[in-house]
Amino acid sequence: QVQLVESGGGLVQAGGSLRLSCVVSGRTFSNYAMGWFRQAPGKEREFVSTISSSTHTAYYADSVKGRFTISRDNAKNTVYLQMNSLKPDDTAVYYCAAASLLTATIEYHKYDYWGQGTQVTVSS
């Protein structure tokens, strides 16, 4: 069974930075494309970023492009989301997800495993 554990969330002022981490256990991490999604109160879960399993090809939602950077360390079974220039609109619970694919995907339904989420709150 694959387990994903996120960390790194917290409260930050607008313009600040946070780095989220997600440690994956239970399967060969390098076999999975990884993604980050977020869900704000009263809104649907939305795609943030994704990275392929080995080539590290990455895609971003337009709302975070240029501010967020996804990366992965296959030796540490960890995927990261570096978030800079944070805005109040970035406030949400952030979820890490793993897809049994080699290529990155923005499609929610293709992800097989999910973490429990970590809260990010950006104050104005």
What does the model show?
- With 124 residues, the chain is mainly beta.
- The chain has no helices and 11 strands.
- The strands form 2 sheets. Strands 2, 4, 5, 6, 9, 10 and 11 form a 7-stranded mixed β-sheet that branches. Strands 1-3-8-7 form a 4-stranded antiparallel β-sheet, with no helix packed on it.
- Strand 7 and strand 8 form a beta hairpin.
Structural class: mainly beta
Fraction in helix: under 10%
How many distinct beta strands?
11
How would a textbook summarize the main sheet?
Answer: 7 strands, mixed
The overall pLDDT, averaged over residues, is: 96
- Order of helices and strands, N to C? EEEEEEEEEEE
User: Which term fits the overall shape?
Assistant: globular
Report the portion of residues in β strands. Answer: over 45%
Rg computed from alpha carbons, rounded to a whole number of angstroms: 13 Å
Give the end-to-end Cα distance, rounded to a whole number of Å: 40 Å
Low-confidence stretches: none
Number of helices: 0
